[in-house]
Amino acid sequence: MSLHTAALSREPAALAHAGIVAFPPGTATMAERDVLDTTLAMRHAGIRRLRIGWELQGAQDAPVIVVQGGISAHRHVAAGARFAEPGWWDAQCGEGRAIDTRHHRVLAIDWIGADGSLDACIDPADQADAIAAVLDHLGIVRVTAFIGASYGAMVGLQFAARHGARLGRLIAISGAHRSHPQVTALRVIQRRIVALGRSEGGVREALALARSLAVIGYRSDVEFEQRFAAAPAVGPDATRFVVEDYFDAIGPKFVARFSPTAYLRLSESIDLQNLDPASIRVATDIVAVREDRIVPESDLYALAEGIRGSTRLHRISSLYGHDAFLKEEAQIAAILTAALCRSVAA
Amino acid sequence: MSLHTAALSREPAALAHAGIVAFPPGTATMAERDVLDTTLAMRHAGIRRLRIGWELQGAQDAPVIVVQGGISAHRHVAAGARFAEPGWWDAQCGEGRAIDTRHHRVLAIDWIGADGSLDACIDPADQADAIAAVLDHLGIVRVTAFIGASYGAMVGLQFAARHGARLGRLIAISGAHRSHPQVTALRVIQRRIVALGRSEGGVREALALARSLAVIGYRSDVEFEQRFAAAPAVGPDATRFVVEDYFDAIGPKFVARFSPTAYLRLSESIDLQNLDPASIRVATDIVAVREDRIVPESDLYALAEGIRGSTRLHRISSLYGHDAFLKEEAQIAAILTAALCRSVAA
């Protein structure tokens, strides 16, 4: 909290002092989105022609922060003047937020594979290279920070390992250098459900089911206790459990915006993560959520110990488990603000 | 361990002293199995004609112990002279085992619903009443102990609550008075997978998939780490993870011996468990496995606190999580032997 307060008090003068051009409120902002058609040498899938959607927004010419979320996140991180629709992380990104678009430009891509057009093995390293390709295209040599959560943290670790020279600081929330084998097993089941539905014609229902299964792991047992412990409706021939209303709400929503191929390939991509932490020499903040059932704390300890750059491990506790980065607004904001402050001071 | 040793040293003289007829090795044994056609007033499904398969084996006229396992267990607990095929719990039951057939008769039933002929909501209380019906049929007024594991422990708790006057002691391993809502959510998904396969014609594959998902929860994360952490085989278009060999081995085995209806109804039955622990006034041993992801320890603490009879809570640790009752032979044998010894002394 002391660092958080310090950060609030150092703008804009302190930022300017640290060598960063700071903009008072009202400074000209920019927002652009486009697609980059390029060729990428993928780790498993060989050389491929790809189309990478990107969005860049914030203060004109300000330092760049890359922000990437989970497999269902996208290039529109936050609402702005030009692209006013809600982003997936408005709580943390925007004017006056922890990732302050008055002082930074925020860059994000749509995950390669997210449009369902690439049916091939996608390594998280490929996503890092795709981001690097967009940076090259935009003439951005160096980024102040890479803030990644969930799959975005995995990609951030890959970016730090592969493109460390152009990165100031990595902030990796709830994502590690590998997937835990038990969680991989659960995701294998999710993909097999979709494959079952695909071969049998019930692919929308199957995808909704796979998503429901995934979501069980995203939240803590305490939340399930609080929300779904009521007795089921039992008839002679059928029982309906309280949690089924929840599944029937989230499944179709997900199906409406995710193709089966995109889901299969991005889910698989999470399980392809396999990085030696020692290959990272960038200053790194790691955020571990105690209740996260998808990314065990023990894996994040191993990551923190293995990284060769200076490392800070932040442990937080949340009812929301793996979804804490979306829900624990104050805890996450404090960590981001402090880390970005260190990043500026470095 | 002291109780364990005591139990070994008190046979047969001490058992006779405690008012139990003890049989030296070589005493006449019996083994019978049959089906009982009866009518049961079921909790949700109304009055139904049922066929209940049972097996009774052990020393002639010896005290009776009811032994019931998980939803895939059955009436043949252990191999004997007459029914020599392996049982599902030979490690704990048989001549010279913790549940010693030289000094007891062991009774078990095939779960109602296990043959797939009953497509209705089955409460664990119905299973307890089915066991009581078999006891009535056999003229057995009282049983020395009910040893239940997993679903069998849930049914044992129901038996203790509903037929406590005819029960000496309950030993409940890895089963509680309710299902945890998060685990119910996982089982809802398992049942929906089967339902999806059923409507789409891929029911065998779907059942195998549901079973694979169930099994992930039965074992600990440490076991997955040890067995399945090796890197996957990655091609340009497909990846095969190590755990998939395991899934492809266990799924078809399960499908060969379980009908979709039986699976759906017995899985649902686990989630219908809803018992007030205060309704139990029988002496009870509860066995909790720290690594059990299906039955959280906190639920077993609540159970132990709520029971009105004298209660012992045994905590063990096992790599095998919920499956510890099948795998931790020495730890489980020590607990059973000591509990049965107390049961005899009572």
From TrEMBL, chains A, B:
One of its GO terms (molecular function) is homoserine O-acetyltransferase activity. Keywords: Acyltransferase, Transferase. The keyword Signal does not apply. Gene3D superfamilies: alpha/beta hydrolase. The keyword Acyltransferase applies. GO terms for biological process: homoserine metabolic process; methionine biosynthetic process. Its EC number is 2.3.1.46. InterPro entries: AB_hydrolase_1 (IPR000073), AB_hydrolase_fold (IPR029058), HAT_MetX-like (IPR008220). Residues 86-327 form the AB hydrolase-1 domain. The active site is at residues 150, 292, 322. This is Homoserine O-succinyltransferase. It comes from Denitratimonas tolerans.
